[in-house]
Amino acid sequence: MIHPVPPGTRDVLPDEMRELRALSARVLDTWQGAGYGEVWTPTLEFEDVMRRGDDRSAAAGFRTFDDQGHVLTLRSDGTIPIARLVANRFEHADGPIRLCYFAHAYRAVKVRSGQPREFLQGGMELIGEPAPDGDAEVIALTLEALNAAGLRRHRIGLGDGALYGALLSEFEVPEPARAALLETLSRRDLVGVEMRVRRLGLGDAECELLTRLLSLRGGPEVLDRVDGPAARAVDGLRELYELLSERGVADRVIFDLGLVRELGYYTGVVFEVYDPAVGFAIGGGGRYDDLLARFGPARPACGVALDIHRVHIAQLEEERQAS
Amino acid sequence: VTATGLTIAVPRGALFGETLDLLDRLGVSTQEIRANDRRLIFPDLGVITTRPSDVPTYVEHGAADIGITGKDVLLEQTDREVYELLDLGYGYCRMIVAARDGDDPLGEPLRRRGSVRVATKYPVIAKDYFARTGRQAEIVEVKGSVEIGPLTGLVDAIVDLTASGRTLAENHLVEHEQIVECTARLIANPVSHKLKADAIDALVQKMREAVAP
């Protein structure tokens, strides 16, 4: 007789567990060496806390009640609890706060899709350091951690999460067309985006920019192909690229001006981590300058979360190719 | 390395012929595929062939960098994480609601039973459409010929794809409502879309020119 586990969850046996521990240790060593202290936050949070951080993230969670009737949710995101923790425990801290964590997060996903409902995240958050220096530190340490894990072919896709919305504001695109357009973009339906852009009644140059921008990705030369109102946002990316060059990691960067991340709290640079061995992003993050103010004093912040299981798959593939 | 530098998922079935014609025009010689009806994978060409509804699965997981499938498949599998890059224009068909001929074959069950029973191979599209149009529908998912549903009393109506309308007519069914028009679409894996940007952009550009009216 088989006693099933819930769909989207699984058992881990000794061989894999040993490798996951070793992988996590290498990532943790890198981050601790750079001054990031490891923390633990509860697996259960009050739903109000998750919702205060990001409505969409809270909506994707599993919920339960405690004995007082409070609604609890299984942590669906690693960053929001850290923002809460910093507000509670580091209220008077001066200077940047550097924290990291290794913990499971839980999301309700369609079971048929084969995506996990429980996944192990290794994340780091740099709080109190504004762009672009903070972004450069987080990205460089993400790449360094993956080097330490034995990956050789990983890349970072780098974009600006606020860029497209800012352009729509610049062109005075009204609701509900604006929300519909951003929703279509978040589904990566570029055919639909092009169709909706054409229906906005904008000039040819505006339409062209709104569609062309989404396919601009590659080296720093793509930044030169942006003009008009988008040029200023791109200056920020250019500055970041300079800093990444100084840190010697610029060759791993792919600019991607159509990059969208599903979480709502990003305010600036967003990025995703890729490895050719894995068909999905193996991690991602970005700048969230407004999130801390939802819990306490406003502080600029940037962070990343790696999907440890997916990094492990990439690591196995590197090993296979090397042997 | 193949001609395109990419692995392409090609749909067998209704879109097969025109997809191969398109690949020919792009300089991918498809003779080998046409000559081997039972072989599914052609490594030298960078082509795999699958059912249209499996194309998004292969592309989402990165087993193929890009793929071609119908908009109907993409609408039915909304949760797939793939880029939809290009409307290829061919394979035109329509998703419709059909029922037996009569005054009001959908309205009557709604008025007198509170819901309409609908058979379909596209439960997501059907459920969404009836919800959007403010009607309670009981969706009956079937795998095969959906047209016999209304004739046998299984359901009041069907949601299905139609190109010519011939199958409907042969089964004494009449189109009552159109849900959406569908054509073939080019889709891409999100990671390939970044890591193989040049190869994908070059192919998209060539396809754009090849299918331009």
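qc> The mean pLDDT of chain B is 91.
qc> done
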